[in-house]
Amino acid sequence: MNSEASIMFSVIVPVYNRPGEVAELLASLGAQTDRGFETIIVEDGSTVKCEEQCREFADTANVKYYYKGNDGRSIARNYGMDRANGDYFIFVDSDCILPPDYIGKLRDSLAKDPSDCFGGPDAAHESFSDTQKAINYAMTSFLTTGGIRGGKVSMEKFTPRTFNMGFSRKVYEKVGGFREMFSEDIDMSTRIRLAGFRIALFPDVAVYHKRRVDFKKFWRQVHVFGMSRITLQLLYPGSMKAVHWLPALFVIGAVAMIIGAFFCKWLIIPLLVYILALWIWGIISTKSLKIGTLGVAAAMVQLTGYGTGFIRAYVWKIILGHGRDINDEIERRRGK
Predict the structure, then answer these.
(1) pLDDT computed for residue 152 by the predictor
(2) Are 160 and 117 in contact (CB under 8 A)?
(3) What's the pLDDT tens digit per position in 130-139?
(4) What mean pLDDT, rounded, does the chain reach?
(5) Cα distance between residue 320 and residue 317, in whole Å
(6) Statement: residue 27 has pLDDT above 60
(7) What are the CA-CA distances from residue 14 to residues 92, 154, 294, 317 (Å)?
(8) CA distances from 263 to 266, 270, 272 (A)
(9) R_g of the chain, CA atoms, integer Å
(10) How far is CA 146 from CA 53, 84, 181, 228, 306, in A?
(11) Can you name the residues that pair with 66 across neighbouring β-strands?
(12) 130 vs 213: CA distance, rounded Å
C-alpha cells in the first residue's frame, strides 16, 4: 500500500447501492501502472453496501472506505475531500472504468500543463452493451450536443464533469465543496472559473463511462439535465449560451414540422435529413449498423428529454417566476 507521503492523487467516488459497478471500477484502479494515488469510497447511505468489494481491492487500489448517512452525492464528495491526503482530488462516477494508464497520463498532462482544475472525455468500452454504446454516441457526437462534453471541438468553454474531473487542494480551500443540486459539477466548474482558476481539458485522459442501461432511464436523466440548465442560468445570469437552447429548439421545430407535414409533406424533409445524417455518422463512428441505428433513437431521446426539461423549467422558473429564491434553496440543502 502507498504511504500517504507519496500520494499525489485522491480518487473520490460517491456510491449508492452499486457494489457490482464499484468492483469493476476498483479492479481498473488496481491495474493502474502509476501507483501514486489513493481511492476514497464514500458510501452514501446505501442499503446494499460495497464494503466487501472495497476490502477485496484495499491493497491493489489503496482503498479507504467510509459509510455515512444518505445526504446526496455532492455531500458525499465533500466528505471524501475532507478525508483525502492527495494534492489533487479526482472525481469519477461509480459506473466508470479507468484505462490502466489513466493516472500516468494525468500525471504527465499536469507536468506539461500545470492546472488547478481539469477534466477529460468519456468513451464506451468494448464490453458495454449496444444500448450503452448507442447512448455514448448520442452524448458525444458533434451532431447532437457532444461538443460541450470534452473533445477537440467545443461549442462553449470546456466544463469538466464529475465522471472525469479533478482539481487541486488549493481550489477546494478557496472555493469550497460541491453544492447539493443537479448539474453540481457545472456549478462547481463555474465557481472555480469565477474564482480566477484556469480550467484545462486533457483530451488523452479519458474514462470509460457506462451511462444508462435503457432509454427510459436515459430520458429521465437528460430531462433533469435540461431543467438544471435553467437553474444554472438563475445562479449565474448570462451563463446560458445559444448552444443550450438547441435541444429545446429541436423539440419545437420537430413538433412544428410533424404537424406541418399534415398540410405540406415537404415540411418534414429537414427533420428526415437530420435523422439520416445521425444514422450515417453513427454507423461510421461506431463501425456498427446496429449501434448506429440505436444511436439515432438515443439521440432522439437525448434531444427531446433535454429539450422538454429545458422548456418545462424555463416556463416554471423564469416565466412564472418560481426560481427567484433558487440560491437560498440550494444553500439550505448544503446545510448552511
Answers:
(1) 46
(2) yes
(3) 999 999 999 8
(4) 91
(5) 6
(6) yes
(7) 9, 28, 30, 30
(8) 9, 16, 17
(9) 21
(10) 33, 32, 22, 17, 13
(11) 42
(12) 9
Using CA atoms, how far apart are residues 327 and 40, in angstroms rounded to an integer? 30
Helix (H, G, I), strand (E, B) or coil at 218: helix
Helices 215-235 and 130-140: crossing angle in degrees, nearest 10, is 30
Is there a contact between 184 and 112 (Cβ–Cβ < 8 Å)? Answer: no
Residue indicated by cell numbers 481550489: 171
**What pTM was computed for the model?**
0.86
**Contacts with 77 (C-beta within 8 Å, 6 or more apart), sequence order:** 12, 14, 42, 91, 162, 177, 178
Q: At what angle do helices 289-313 and 215-235 cross, to 10 degrees?
A: 40
pLDDT band at residue 4 using 50, 70 and 90 as cut-offs:
low
Average pLDDT of the segment spanning 203-210: 93
Other Cβ atoms less than 10 A from the Cβ of 38: the count is 23
**Average pLDDT for 78-94:** 97
Cα–Cα distance, 309 to 331 (Å, whole number)? 23
Q: What is the pLDDT of residue 268?
A: 97
Report in angstroms the alpha-carbon separations of 266 from 15, 26, 28: 50, 54, 52
State residue 157's pLDDT score.
74
Structural contact between residues 171 and 192, judged by C-beta atoms closer than 8 angstroms: yes
Q: How far apart are the first and last CA of the chain?
A: 37
In the predicted structure, residue 34 carries a pLDDT above the cut 90: yes
Q: In Å, how far are 33, 126, 247, 327 from 25, measured between CA atoms?
A: 15, 15, 32, 34
Q: Is the per-residue pLDDT at 106 higher than 80?
A: yes
Please state, for a pLDDT cut of 70, what percent of the chain lies above it.
91
Q: Kind and range of the H or E element at 201?
A: strand 199-201
Non-local CB neighbours of 120 within 8 Å, separated by 6+ positions? 150, 164, 201, 202, 203, 204, 205, 206, 207
